[in-house]
Amino acid sequence: MYPPNQPFETGKLKVSDIHELYYEVSGNKDGNPVVFLHGGPGGGTDPADRGFFNPDKYKIILFDQRGSGKSTPTACVEENTTWDLVKDIEKLREKLGIEKWHVFGGSWGSTLSLAYAQSYPERVKSLVLRGIFTLRKSELTFFYQNGASHLFPEAWDEYLEPIPESERGDMMLAYHKQLNSPDEAVRMRAAKAWSKWEMSTSKLFVDPENIARAGDDKFALAFARIENHYFINEGFMRDGQLLEKQAIDKIRHIPTVVVQGRYDVVCPATTAWELKKVFPELTLHIVPDAGHSSREEGIAKLLVEATNKFADL
């Protein structure tokens, strides 16, 4: 990865009566534009995210999605849907005067990248995706109800702990109740437990520094509330919508690279494989010694190779 370079432009973009988005631009002012779509939803961006792109070649655009990071109001789920975010990306492109750009996204960012590209294929030069996630019921059930729990039983017990036994038959719904409780202490306890579950499972080797992120009040509340809001609403789309032939046909012409950790339990490899089957033109790399995180060595290396490949496109 490249050392993080400093933004030469930062700003706020008002996208609704409620929401204002933080964005930044770094790298080469006259470079090839690329937009980074962060995960979660609700995760926000980090300065290290600039490091996937050669700053001499790329004009690097990062922004925090509704309710996330430095965008305001924080942790807000009102007027916050997949299709609101897709429109926000277009508003940001128009504000920055960019005709077409490269799109880079991992985890939820891969979902949003696919949704954006299928909505505005004429605006996308390439797709670099990691940890494919399409919000199908089977994917959500595996991670939040029954699946990953068999691999991380000790972390799963901590995730179960805030929820009464009588409500554990639908963990997402039970968490929704607590994350929207009028009691701030209940909301925060649930937010930290929800976030810790994902932070505990996102790397092949459990990373205490990653888990520590779940202890940050602002991050945990935005991450948990917004993720849960999207998931109980099934991403505001039909089950499997992003993998349907009609949707994929719109983006077949877009050069696409997918990097997937073999042992990713947050977004298991089966979804990347399903995408490859309906979109055989894409290049799929399955990293044999990696989990979910973009920071794992094998994944980061292939992501940078992909952005270097498209730098002059």
Oligomer: single chain
Strand order of the largest sheet: 1-2-4-3-5-6-7-8
Name the poorly predicted regions: none
Please name the fourth-level CATH homologous superfamily of the largest domain: Alpha/Beta hydrolase fold, catalytic domain
CATH topology assignment of the largest domain: Rossmann fold
Specify the helix fraction band: 25-40%
Chain-wise SSE layout:
Layout: E1 9-14, E2 20-27, E3 32-37, E4 58-63, H1 82-95, E5 101-106, H2 108-119, E6 124-130, H3 137-144, H4 153-160, H5 171-179, H6 184-201, H7 208-212, H8 217-232, H9 245-249, E7 256-261, H10 269-278, E8 283-287, H11 297-309
Parallel strand pairs: 3-4, 3-5, 5-6, 6-7, 7-8
Antiparallel strand pairs: 1-2, 2-4
Helix pairs in contact: 1-2, 4-6, 5-8, 6-8
Describe the overall structure.
It contains eleven helices and eight strands. With 313 residues, the chain is of the alpha/beta class. It folds into two domains: 7-137 and 237-310, Alpha/Beta hydrolase fold, catalytic domain (Rossmann fold, 3-Layer(aba) Sandwich), CATH 3.40.50; 139-235, no CATH class. The protein has an eight-stranded mixed β-sheet, with helices on both faces. Helix 2 links the parallel strand 5 (101-106) and strand 6. Helix 1 (82-95) crosses helix 2 (108-119), helix 4 runs antiparallel to helix 6 and helix 6 crosses helix 8. The relative contact order is 0.14.
